[in-house]
Amino acid sequence: MSLSGKTRVAGVVGQPIAHSMSPVLHNAWIAAAGLDAVYVPFGIAEGRFAAFVQGLRGGSVAGLNVTLPFKGEALAAADEATSRAAGAGAANVLVFRPDGSILADNTDGLGLLAAFAEQAPGFDPKTGPVVILGAGGGARGAAAAFVEAGCPEVRIVNRTLAKAEEIATALGGTVRAYGLDQAAAAFEGANGLVNATSAGLANGGAIDVPLAATPEACVVMDMVYKPLTTPFLAGAQGLGRRTVDGLAMLIGQAIPSFEAFYGQTPPASVDVRTLAIQTLGL
Known about the structure:
Blueprint: E1 8-14, H1 22-33, E2 37-43, H2 49-54, E3 63-66, H3 71-77, E4 80-81, H4 83-88, E5 93-96, E6 102-105, H5 108-119, E7 130-133, H6 137-148, E8 154-158, H7 161-171, E9 175-179, H8 183-187, E10 192-195, E11 219-222, H9 231-238, E12 243-244, H10 246-262, H11 272-280
Helix pairs in contact: 1-11, 5-6, 5-10
């Protein structure tokens, strides 16, 4: 990699950050495109995010991807937000404009929908209800994406009903809240099911929900990508359901981020999925 005085810099900020796959994906695309650019990780202490972002106003850095725990702060730090970021209540992209202003966006929902389109061809969010497990930031972002895509009803299922109700209130009339004990009722007639909880991580166990209550045509997704096939997805596959993995979502959200930072679509010649699988040791 050769750097110059005109190198376009972007990166990802979070804490911890060493595990992030974003530098691997973006730098592979940069190399293939022959860009004078670089994508770097920024690990900063909690409590320092706002000051860090303010210091980047003016465009010396083109933009940032933002990961945990700073997505909410990223939205608050921006001067302007897209409808996607506002709906999600969080931003995973900050673009630093030459005039000193900051634009917040959220490409997580785009990544989620792209993952469904890639791994479950024919899935149409407009044709039926979608169920989302969890009520954190990932769940709200997924719900906002499905609402924007025209899903007729989004059902949030969470152990603490009040948290699911908060999302339903924030996003409006087509979003419904269910307690975990109501999961079977929420699954009735579902077109899609998304696990937006951390359950399913290698050390996190499985989430206890009646997957058999989903229709045979229901497409099941897990946002977790390590392991690639979580216990949740394995259970769905055992029932014959089509499944979508979290790595497809990770790559899907990175594509519009790259376009925002570098002004072009990443080269399709790079097999970033295989690269990610090799890097993660999956």
